[in-house]
Amino acid sequence: MRADRLLSIMLLLQVHRRLTARELAQRLEVSERTIHRDMESLSCAGIPVQAERGTGGGWSLMEEYRTNLTGLNEYEIQTLFLSRPSHVLSDLGLHKASEGALIKLLAALPAVRRQDAEYVSQRIHIDTSNWHSREEPIPALPTLQQAIWQEHKICFTYLRGETLVERIADPLGLVAKGSTWYLVAVVEGQSRSYRVSRIQSVRIMEEAYVRPPDFDLATFWTQSSRDFTSTLRWYQATVRAAPEVVPRIYGSSRLFRMEQTDVVDQDGWLTFHLGFDTPYEACAYILSFGDQVEVLEPAELRAEIIQQAARVLEYYTKKSFA
Question: Is the domain 2-61 a CATH 1.10.10.10 member?
Fold first, then answer.
């Protein structure tokens, strides 16, 4: 642990050129006294660290002391320093390890390449979460990780609907879909996926398993996702929309399937085909536009919209005269 800290100090100084003992202590989560002892150890080991007192002072390395990493071009370096989904790394317990690896890589880069890395990290940030995501409890995740690394079978209980079922599985991998984790495992000879938040308990068995030599996690997940999407039932609605709300429809198109037609009526209204998961979602979404979106088909959805609007009007009318 101390050796890692000494290396981190050396690389931090190489990247930032000068840091105070307090700044180093905060970054490495130790006391300032520990930092001073570490500096003595580095000096005894022949690392040219030096201290400057006063305003703007701190610890630094002699300018000529550095390690260079060659062979990476500008664009390769930029891809390495694009932000990672921090919640995924945190779930896996790898957030600090990721930061440490990037510090070491940044310290090893020549000065001109270091600018490329800092340039992209300040201009592109990737956030894989969505606005409506909720944090799910995933206490089983560390145990699943361990079983996957060790290639041992697991026995777990899984909440399927309202029923608790038990399964013995060969865990092959973990997939983060947005902020949701899935376990991919072989159960009864078939590769399946399970939502980790629904796993109620898990234990690692002593028996090892043989990982299928031709199994590729990314390929399996891509095909599995396609198969799942193809089985979804979509509720189709045809609507006409006022020009001023068309940007809003496009802006929320991730909530449904959308196809714009070439039909534009004499009022300038555009016709769309929208696909929702359920009639309820279609009704709620369309009602949110008031009189700026009209349902053309199906007839039952149009009738439901009219009934819902009438009920709302009746409710507020009674409230007004109460």
Answer: yes
pLDDT score at 165 = 94
> Is the peptide bond between 298 and the residue preceding it cis, with omega within 30 degrees of 0?
yes
Which strands form 49-52's sheet, in the order they lie side by side? 18-19, 58-61, 49-52
Q: How many C-beta atoms surround the C-beta of residue 309 within 10 A?
A: 13
**What's the CATH number for 235-321?**
3.30.70
CA dihedral 22, 26, 27, 32 (to 10 degrees): 50
Task: Kindly indicate the confidence band of residue 72, based on its pLDDT and cuts at 50, 70 and 90.
Answer: low
Whole-structure pTM value: 0.55
3-state secondary structure of 276: strand
Q: Where are the domains of the chain?
A: 2-61, 74-121, 141-231, 235-321
Please report the pLDDT score of residue 131 as a whole number: 60
| Domain 141-231, CATH | 2.30.30.520
**Predicted confidence (pLDDT) at residue 106 exceeds the cutoff of 90:** no
